[in-house]
Amino acid sequence: MSGTTIYEFDALVVAAPGVSDTVGLHSVPPQVFVWLESQALQMTEVGKTAWLRLSQRRGRRAVQVTSFVGVIRAPNGYQIEVLPKVAKAIGGGDVEARTLLIEMLRCLGGFRHIKTESAKLVATRMPLLEIFIGEFLNAVEHVVKRGLRSDYSLQQDNLFALRGKLQIATHLRRNICRRDRFFSEFDEFSPDRPENRLLHTALLRILVWTNSQPHQQLARELCFVFAEVPTSKHPCADFQRIRLDRGMAHYAGALAWARLILEDETPLTGVGSHSAPSLLFPMEAVFEAFVAKHLAKQLKQEFTIRTQARSLSLVRHLEKDWFHLIPDLLVQKSKVNLLVLDTKWKLIDEKKTKGSEKYGLSQGDFYQLHAYGQNYLDGNGNIVLIYPKTDTFNKPLPVFEFPKSPQLRLWVLPFCLKYKQLLLPPCGSLDKVFLNTQSRID
Fold first, then answer.
1. Domain shared by 379 and 244, yes or no
2. How many domains does the chain have?
3. Which of 126, 229, 278, 399 could tie 130 with a disulfide, CB 3.0–4.6 Å?
4. How far apart are the C-alpha atoms of 280 and 97, rounded to whole Å?
5. Is residue 38 part of a domain?
6. pLDDT of 363 higher than 70
7. What is the pTM of this model?
């Protein structure tokens, strides 16, 4: 199975003789490009979140990926691995980018089952899809070792011996000339339950996807264990029937992966189709979850952190709240708001200060943070914009002040992905909230 590895915002064009890939521009087979173009057009028409958009490069038609990472799988099996752009900005390559993404994905609720250390080991030699498949197989193997759970299910059959209850009407209709048969309704203790059907179906599907011999072998061995379990004819209905009863907690990880495999959707956006399953993640959401998890460890004990708070709105109209104000992170003490933070997955440059460059910051983000500060902090306190730490942004920027709101201060701070810590301003303005744990960050 062939494929290519690219980064966020890279462009793809049709492969042509004598044309080689360059930085940010990659070639794909013609049939793959046609499919990608159709996906971009479809998203434009129906107003879906665009993980792909039409573009042009060097006079040629192109498609450009946006701030989504993961795996795109074309109908013919061609795989496009999309990695985080920040890995290049901090001097890393494909292996470092892949390892970083695996680490960050663990902070998303549905991916806490990724075993980071084992995944890191294979990141040096396997693409993302194979890593995901390996994690799913490990989770199913864990279920098998703990034992498949069976359940009683109501069955009806025309048996040679009476079992359960005799269904008189059906028995008379079908067995009037067959005295050796009994049409019975009975309970049967069987592994045929929704959880097992879904895992069996997902195993069969990844057998088609994987190109790894060890993964194929393990998948076949696991399929043999599920031989008495039928496949799921209606996965969506079976997912709704899932009951993780007592003693079934070990199913949670495998079922989380099975949902991604069988629903043919990206985990957070619902983009995908039955003929071309893809696993794509918006990096804004991944970065936000990553920062939220690790920032909580950097807070002093008396402070708590809330994500996606939405208790306030910008205006009221016709006795209703309009335009909810939803900061990414809100630090509180005894339910009193003390600090508002917003994460931005964007590369900024602390040396770009001339003219309209302004470090690469967005005026719209400043408007947004000002609104958060006025409403959540009553115009008095600190608001923070968090960007990933890179070689071009490795220390906090000087404070930003609002002339009409002198008690409100805005900080632009880097978050170190390597050490999982927020770099604080040297003046100590945020020391009352955060622990001083950044001495090892260069």
1. no
2. 3
3. 126
4. 15
5. no
6. yes
7. 0.77
CB 254 within 8 A of CB 143: yes
Q: What is the number of other CB atoms lying within 10 angstroms of the CB of residue 78?
A: 19
What DSSP element (H or E) covers 263?
Answer: helix 252-263
Distances (CA, A) of 358 to 47, 172, 174, 368: 32, 86, 83, 17
**Phi, psi (rounded to 5 degrees) for 239:** -60, -35
DSSP string, 166-222: E-HHHHHHHHTT-TT-EEEEEEEEES-SHHHHHHHHHHHHHHHH---HHHHHHHHHH
Orientation of helix 194-209 relative to helix 128-146, angle to 10°? 150
Domain, as residue range, for 114? 109-150+192-266
pLDDT confidence band for 269 (50 / 70 / 90):
very low
52 neighbors 40 (Cβ within 8 angstroms): yes
Task: Tell the residue number behind the tokens 């043919």, with chain if given.
Answer: 264
The reply to whether 29 falls in a domain is no
Question: In sequence order, which residues have a C-beta less than 8 Å from that of residue 359 and are 6 or more positions away?
Answer: 348, 349, 350, 352, 353, 393, 397, 412
Residues 217 and 256 in one domain: yes
Is 386 in a helix, a strand, or coil?
A: strand
